[in-house]
Amino acid sequence: MFLDYKLPDMNGIEIIEKLGEHAKDLIIIMITAYASIEVAIEATRKGAYDFLPKPFTPNELRTVTRKAAERILLARKNAQLAHEKKQVRFEFIRVLGHELKAPLGAVEGYLELMKTKTLGDNLDSYLQFIERSSIRLQQMRKLIVDLLDMTRLESGKKSRNLVAVDLRKAAENAIELATPAANARSISISLEAPATLSIMADVGEIDMMLNNLISNAVKYNRDEGKVMVRLEQTADNISVQVADTGIGMSAEEQQKLFKEFSRIKNAKTANILGSGLGLSILKRLAELYEGNISVASEPDQGTTFTLTIPLSKCAEASTT
Amino acid sequence: MAKILLVDDDKDFVEINKMLLEKEGYKILTAYDPTEGYKVLKAEKPDLLILDVMMVEPDDGFAMAQKIRKEKNNIPIIMLTSVSKVTGMKFDKDEEMVPVNEFFEKPLAKDKLLKAVKKYIK
After folding, report:
1. In the structure, how many helices (H) and strands (E) does chain A have?
2. Are residues A243 and A123 in the same domain?
3. Would an 8 Å CB–CB cutoff place A268 in contact with chain B?
4. Which of A29, A45, B3, B37 is the Cys-Cys partner for B7 at CB 3.0 to 4.6 Å?
5. Euclidean distance between the first and the last CA atom of chain B, given in angstroms as a whole number
6. Distance to chain B for A103, nearest Cα, Å
7. ipTM summary value
8. Residue A87 falls within a domain, yes or no?
């Protein structure tokens, strides 16, 4: 709105005052022949965006108008971004709510079956219910832990302590952690790595990344399958490659992989527990090191995840 | 014996309700996704369908109900959801979008479920 200062009944500033709250949604440019600093300041304070002294040249008018138009565009863009962010958040909470309610519903259901002694008086008949309930609760706990990890990463408040970490040692530890689950299904895990591979990193973050990759490779494997962990240092990068011989996934499924809660649900994954947050945490962690995580997969053949971190980001004395 | 088909991707949910309803003397068929559910529906012609809204995709249950009605199949459908409370979205029966006979929030207490089932299986 171009608003003249000197008007028959009221002046421009009085109009801005009258507009009150509505003035906020408008871009007001005051035009006046009585250009004085005071009027300009007062008009701006009351909500005018700019000021154009009379007489003005077409060029001046053009400049002022362009400035205002740019501002309108920027404001619209910001509003749209804020709206999209809200939508993403809304969707996240919706799915999270569902993921948290489902295990509670299952446990409540089993408790109800026990309370009403659906299967008679013998306690042994109910062991299966108890087993299923504790699996669902475990899963729920994992979801909450992952959620907290992710929130901490997002907030940037997690204190990071960068020290020299031996990646080989860290990988060995992660493999040890995954071994019971692997043994239970006769899956073998191999490691191929230099004798030591030292990088500057946060121990907790490195463990989280390796545990995530290796436990996934076991979870989504077939019985008697293989997990191959390979650490490598090239001239520019350090790479961690974890390959499995598992169920794999289609190109379409790979696209959705790193999104929150995008756990791929199909007959093959129906009995595999997961929070649906592991890979989005992994991606965020990789970003902290300006690294990258990529996936190559073939249905029923296996999947290979490759984490690459630029040496410049983690080079300590990357000797050996 | 009246046959009820339960379709839900939550294995435990299916197991629990199967047990509850079997105890009441119904024959229970189960499926864990809409495609499988649809096959069982065609093959077994159950008397009642209990359907979850959210399976692989957020609106799988709606899609399945719409498909069934499009084929002029008037099997009673009880739809269960765990989503509306969280989103504040109010789903309800709707001839076109949600062509079902009953719509309930999960978890559904045993008595309410049995009452709803008895209403449609005489």
Report:
1. 9, 10
2. no
3. no
4. B37
5. 11
6. 9
7. 0.79
8. no
